[in-house]
Amino acid sequence: MRIGFLFNHYAGHQLLHAAPTAFALSRFYPRHRVFMFVRGKALADLADKIAQRYPGHRVEITIIDAPLIARLADPLIRPFAFAGKQAALEANLDLFQPLDVLVVPEKTSLSLKRHQKLAHLKFVYTHHGAGDRADAYYPQLADFDLVLAPGRKIADRLISSGLVKAENCAIVGYPKFSVRQSLGVTPPAFAQKRITVLYNPHYSRRESSWAPWGRDILDFFRQSDRYNLIFAPHILLYQRWLRHRARPLGRWRGQSHMHLDTGSDAMIDMTYLDAADLYLGDVSSQIYEFLLRPRPAVFLDPRAIAAWHRDESFVMWQAGDVVTHLADLPNALAQAHDRHARYEAAQRRLFEETFDHGDQPDEERAAQAIVAHFTKKSP
To answer: Nearest Cα to 315, choosing from 295, 292, 288?
Structure first.
């Protein structure tokens, strides 16, 4: 088979979820040719860094891009929308035509199905996170030939909702864990030893704490003599800054106890998650990566969602106190470490339900699932 992995995005966060599978597949199943298509040189450089964990791989990496006119228009459109993604797909149909299988971490690529020359192509969805948000369970998942799930919780929800048939869903674990801190970045070195809080707001304006509370939260930490702060939002918050109301951060920069990052590699390879003593966020799936090592967590609910306890889209809030009034945040942070004992068992349970663990590295399990599904026999 000829198996392609496509990373058609402006940011590199999706690479860490699926690139390990490409490299593992090429090493352990050499009779299959493996191709990787990445959008631009920056993503190619990231792929090369991840590849260093997989010596002897045989992945053929190709840089793709959108046509010139789309690239020229992109700076005007990008603050609102990622129109260049679709343009890049349409411009590279001939690269995808020889493939038998295309592996992607997002749904935009399903638009390729409408082209007759790609009617033979099978699609695999890898996920690019393990969160609970309802938006992650979209109807287009039914259009994939195979969906890879990190654990039983997500697989059960996909199947019970009717989005994915059981025979088209494979539980493979979380390949990103194999390449955490693989991009050569280091956590900030703060001048004073304090509790380090990671503030990690999502970009979704319906659920994020950023638009209603974010600036007040940064003001709180600027005035604090108790905490160091790493501000590292979901990387898309500042990729589409106008759409998500992500304004400049000049007034909070220059503080020795505040590290503000809106786009570096440290945001995507778990560098900040591993460095923090306490997680502060809303609905980002990165909470589950943080729980690889259980620590205190506080969640922000500016909209005071009344029924979140009964909503499977907010299961992650079982891992810590939930703040519905901004005035309660200082007390929640101050008590988080003392109250962690109340949540540690829940954190461990949530982690185990979210991520399946096997005897093999997860990227090898994912590679095996792909080969087995499309050859219909044990590889």
So the answer is: 288
What SS3 state is found at 379? coil
What is the Cα 289 distance to its own chain's centre? 10
Cβ atoms within 10 Å, residue 337:
13
pTM of the entire structure? 0.94
For 88-126, the pLDDT digits (tens) are 999 999 999 999 999 999 999 999 999 999 999 999 999
Q: How confident is the model at residue 379 (pLDDT cuts 50, 70, 90)?
A: very low
Q: What SS3 state is found at 169?
A: strand
**CA angle at 154 for the pair 152 and 157, rounded to the nearest 5°:** 105
Instruction: State the burial class of residue 184 (Cβ atoms within 10 Å of its Cβ: 0-12, 13-18, 19+).
Output: exposed
Q: What is the pLDDT of residues 276-315, one digit of tens each?
A: 999 999 999 999 999 999 999 999 999 999 899 999 999 9
Kindly state the DSSP code that residue 28 receives in the 8-state scheme.
H
* Cα–Cα distance, 26 to 28 (Å, whole number): 6
Q: Are the C-beta atoms of residues 52 and 134 closer than 8 Å to each other?
A: no
**CB count, 10 Å around CB of 74?**
16
Largest CA distance in the chain: 62
377 has pLDDT over 60: no
Do residues 21 and 43 lie in contact, with contact meaning Cβ atoms separated by under 8 Å?
A: no
**Alpha-carbon dihedral 372, 374, 377, 379, rounded to 10 degrees:** -40
The amino acid at 150: P
Residue type, position 9, single letter? H
- The answer to whether 139 and 40 have CB atoms below 8 angstroms apart is no
Q: Are 241 and 259 in contact (CB under 8 A)?
A: no
CA dihedral 104, 108, 109, 110 (to 10 degrees): 110
Question: What are the structural domains of the chain?
Answer: 2-174+356-375 (3.40.50.2000), 195-354 (3.40.50.12580)
Cα 47–chain centre separation: 16
Angle at 125 between CA 164 and CA 178, to 5 degrees: 120
